[in-house]
Request: fold
Amino acid sequence: MAECRDLESLFASYVDGDAAPADCAALDAHFSSCPACRNRVAGERAVRAAVVAQREKLRSCASADLRRRCEASRQAARTPPPVAGRAGVFARKPWVPLSMAATLVLAVAGVFLYGLKDGVEALGAQLAVDHVKCFEFASPPTLIPDAKQLAREWADARGWTIKIPESQPAEQLELLGVRRCISTAGLTAHLMYKWRGQPLSVYVLKSQHPRVGAMPRLVEQLGQEELIWSKGGRTYAVVTRGRAPDIEQIADYVQRSTE
Amino acid sequence: MVFGRRPRASGAAPAGAGDESEDRAFSEEALSYIDALYGTALRLTRRPQDAEDLVQDTYLKAFRAAGQFQRGTNLKAWLFTILHNTFRNMRRHDGRNPVDVNSETVEQAADQTGDERTPEQLLTRATLDTNLQAALDSLPDAFRQAVWLRDVEEFSYADIARMVDVPIGTVMSRISRGRRMLFERLAPKGSAARAASR
Reply:
């Protein structure tokens, strides 16, 4: 009925006890002659009562790890950024170690500047900031992760597959875990490693980046050195702290492991 | 508690670098909502890992934009607005539709009678055996969000409208329809429709 549809928008406030007196009167008058609406509102009221009664049960608790990470976000945001805006800050070495907050600020500007000229450099800047951010906030794993298991879990959760290079004790390369990279629109797998005691990331982009070719390209962004290449419809990047002489060796291992 | 921050003048210190005690109070109040944010993020994403990422991203943005928070307004609602905006952006980048609404489904009710119990009686018996959380999770996104934000997190219609970026009337309609759909899921099959249609 047209009248039922007209009054429907008032049902929520009626059930919540927030409807204006005139609206309540109009609804009461309607309900006296419309059992369908009367029962519908009774059902909605019963649902509301059930949800409210179980409100505490329905709520979830954040983990201690998440609390710690969010606390760390607070500290990072509190750190004042350095003087920014000079193009040279982005371009030249030696890189002066920056605080987390400064790195984030510079990365935004870096992506903007390089995005106008070079898509690979812009991608490198995005990945560099994600690399720094994630290692700043991530907790070390409590168990040694199994690469194959992680790959299966990733495929189940995300709907696309990745190959995860395993730890290489001889190279002091240790797999720490895998997470989805929000900074790159959530379509990138971030494989986290420790290499010779330093953070090392391997990024796998779900689709091939249009500016990245098969030949690995060396990129230096935000104090990080990166090798970026595409293969088999995916784009890969290895990211670690600047001036790593053997980064090609690690990239080669990643290439072989992901074939 | 509704926490207030002084509006920051242009060119003033960056967010988080203001008065120490004020910043600490702001951060502490913001972090006191972490469970509520996580619970809501879990309803939105349905995956604990994604929910944690969403909450962490929300706090990063909130702390960096702390200077923009308006004195005297609702900090919890402000954080939830950031959470929903961040979620919408994530979904957009994922290539998924942020809101999948089929309002017509709630209009389908059998035009039959036969069960003489009231809706309250049906639901009371049903909820003894039925997992309310599972029923909530089964609702389409838009209706689940509306019911959750209203009945669990107790936000006003206006706050919810700002968070999900739709008119207040739409929020009220979604709450009503979401409750009705929940009733249909919780009450014994067949009897809910009959009761609702009487």
Summary: The radius of gyration of chain B is 20 Å.
